[in-house]
């Protein structure tokens, strides 16, 4: 070990250190929520580089979202391993496709279709099939699922024949529509995102020279969120590796929430079987959540295949001893209807903000997008700043585009003044001020966007120049690495994965919403359970769960979620009594 490598291990716990020191593969890191998996794998890569075991140009870190890849790159840069590329599966495959296509096929690579809806609509006209927008989305999802699952059309036809086509389509119409879509795509020399994986894999399989060059370029692979890998991604990964064993994967079977998109925890759970002699490291010490929240998460996943038994870190115990009020037990609240629930949650959040809690440290998590509107309205009525995650990307907002353009233009000329002055002068020129405007609304929303950019100065290294700041901002925009906005976040459980907040409100925990009504069978219900697990483990200090006896204008009353009853935050009888009392009050 070199002197420069040793400090990279100093801040790791025992299990994380074992993971970081396991430099030769295969290695499987089973990492529960909040156990520091990103810390472990970035220190492992940086330690391998610093100790001379890895050539940084020949290591590939793979993850599933552009945001996660940007986070990996940022951490590796801080740890001195900034030359190590961190990419999504699709980004890595696309780079290889663009490089090898002119050599193998000739000419430039086909255009990448970033949105299937328009082409599917044209395909429907060609196939003479009447279809609405919702059904087109379902057909697009079917196309994606078939390809990432590596199903040929005969296998897929057998499957769709047995279970039916999306919407009101007949099986024949559905298959005709898919055929017309693929035909149009070929005629226009286009590939969709799933084709990128398949075409890249095809080149490596069929062209020995391509396979040799790829395997020579990258010798060591680290795959984050391995529980989300699809058969197509796993196949491409195996082709990248060839007959080598230099693979490290990290994942948590309890956070497998994308099986509808082809993800399979089977690759994670079967890693030892497919890679005999693999080192397996378990990260189970949770550094994120308080002990009551960890205990609740463990109760939910007790007895499930691959579930890790989390334990609250000693630091969390120390916090509890010093300030017990910061570690309250999770609560469950019944409301007579959805509006009462939204207003009740908004009032609780308003009280916490008035008590000094920062809005950005609070989240409201919902099962489906249709729930966001009523909670957004209730928070606005309570004068709580709010952002809906996924509604519009930060760098797509008009005021943010204006700010990025203005900062890049101003940074062309060298300046000799503090970075904050340079940035704030530009932002003031487009309407930002040091003090926020009163109340919620569009004006406040614009200010929050600009203020989020201003606050990035605080995170910049001390020697950052104005030009470097503007360039980093452009990189953030390209990778959708969004800054923190001073607002309460509303997010679906799916989009909340990988994030965390001090205080989380899990709403809508009634039968038909969580588990969702269309979840049929044990496997589907287990996926809903894992979604709730993801929601619970987003919370650091406070967690509240709630349900409404009536949804919108629907007739009939709902029962509390089976998961809520199972967790026994309050007994099922108490939950039902609270619901009955709430309904009588209404």
Please give a quick description of this structure.
Residues 571-579 have low confidence and may be disordered.
Description:
- The chain is α/β, with parallel strands linked by helices.
- It is built from 26 helices and 16 strands.
- The protein has a six-stranded parallel β-sheet with strand order 3-2-6-7-1-8. A six-stranded parallel β-sheet has the order 11-16-15-12-14-13.
- Strand 6 (220-223), helix 12 (231-241) and strand 7 form a beta-alpha-beta unit.
- Helix 10 (193-206) packs parallel to helix 12 and helix 15 (291-301) packs antiparallel against helix 24.
- The protein is globular, with a radius of gyration of 25 Å.
- The termini are far apart.
Spatial order of the strands forming the largest sheet: 3-2-6-7-1-8
- Major sheet attributes: 6 strands, parallel
Low-pLDDT stretches are 571-579
What is the average of the pLDDT values? 86
Determine Rg (CA atoms, Å).
25 Å
Global structural class: alpha/beta
Q: How many beta strands in the DSSP annotation?
A: 16
Helix percentage range: 40-55%
Overall, the morphology is globular
Calculate the terminal CA-CA distance, rounded to whole Å. 69 Å
Total helical elements: 26
Strand content: 5-15%
């Amino acid at each position: 070990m070199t002197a420069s490598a040793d400090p990279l291990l100093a801040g790791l716990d025992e299990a994380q250190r074992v993971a970081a020191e396991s430099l030769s593969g295969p290695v499987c890191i089973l990492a529960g929520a909040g156990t520091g998996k990103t810390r472990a794998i970035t220190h492992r890569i940086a330690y391998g580089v610093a100790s001379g075991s890895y050539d940084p140009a020949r290591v590939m870190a793979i993850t599933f979202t552009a945001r996660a890849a940007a986070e990996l790159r940022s951490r590796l840069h801080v740890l001195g391993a900034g030359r190590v590329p961190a990419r999504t599966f699709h980004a890595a495959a696309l780079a290889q496709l663009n490089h090898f296509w002119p050599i193998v096929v000739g000419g430039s690579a086909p255009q990448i279709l970033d949105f299937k809806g328009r082409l599917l609509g044209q395909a429907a006209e060609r196939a003479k099939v009447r279809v609405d927008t919702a059904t087109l989305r379902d057909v697009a999802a079917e196309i994606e699922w078939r390809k990432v699952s590596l199903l040929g059309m005969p296998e897929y036809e057998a499957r769709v024949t047995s279970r039916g086509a999306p919407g009101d389509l007949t099986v024949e119409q559905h298959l005709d529509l898919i055929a017309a879509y693929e035909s149009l795509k070929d005629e226009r020399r286009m590939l969709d995102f799933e084709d990128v994986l398949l075409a890249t894999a095809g080149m490596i399989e069929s062209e020995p020279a391509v396979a040799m060059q790829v395997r020579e370029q990258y010798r060591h692979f680290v795959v984050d969120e391995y529980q989300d890998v699809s058969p197509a991604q796993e196949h491409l990964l195996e082709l990248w590796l060839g007959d080598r064993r230099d693979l490290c994967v990290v994942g948590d079977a309890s956070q497998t929430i994308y099986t509808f998109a082809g993800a399979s925890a089977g690759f994670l759970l079967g890693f030892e079987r497919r890679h005999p002699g693999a080192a397996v490291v378990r990260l189970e010490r949770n550094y994120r959540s308080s002990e009551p929240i960890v205990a609740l998460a463990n109760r939910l996943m007790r007895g499930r295949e691959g579930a890790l038994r989390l334990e609250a870190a000693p630091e969390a115990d120390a916090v509890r001893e010093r300030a017990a009020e910061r570690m309250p037990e999770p609560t469950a609240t019944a409301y007579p209807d959805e509006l009462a629930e939204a207003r009740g949650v908004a009032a609780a959040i308003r009280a916490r903000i008035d008590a000094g809690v920062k809005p950005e440290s609070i989240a409201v998590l919902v099962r489906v997008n249709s729930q966001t509107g009523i909670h957004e309205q209730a928070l606005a009525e309570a004068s709580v700043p709010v952002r809906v995650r996924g509604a519009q990307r930060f760098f797509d907002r008009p005021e943010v585009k204006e700010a990025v353009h203005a900062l890049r233009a101003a940074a062309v000329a060298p300046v000799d003044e503090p970075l904050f002055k340079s940035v704030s002068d530009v932002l003031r020129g487009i309407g930002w001020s040091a003090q926020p405007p009163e109340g919620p609304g569009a004006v406040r929303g614009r200010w929050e966007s600009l203020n989020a950019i201003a606050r990035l100065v605080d995170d910049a290294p001390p020697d950052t120049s104005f030009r470097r700041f503007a360039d980093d901002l452009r990189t953030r925009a390209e990778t959708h690495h969004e800054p923190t906005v001073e607002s309460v976040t509303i997010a679906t459980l799916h989009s909340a994965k990988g994030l965390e907040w001090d205080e989380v409100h899990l709403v809508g925990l009634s039968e038909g919403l969580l588990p969702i009504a269309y979840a049929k069978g044990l496997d589907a219900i287990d996926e809903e359970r894992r979604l709730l697990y993801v929601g619970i483990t987003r919370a650091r200090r406070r967690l509240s769960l709630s349900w409404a006896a009536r949804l919108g204008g629907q007739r009939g009353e709902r029962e509390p979620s089976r998961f809520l009853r199972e967790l026994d935050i309050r007994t099922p009888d108490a939950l039902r009594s609270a619901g009955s009392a709430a309904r009588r009050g209404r």
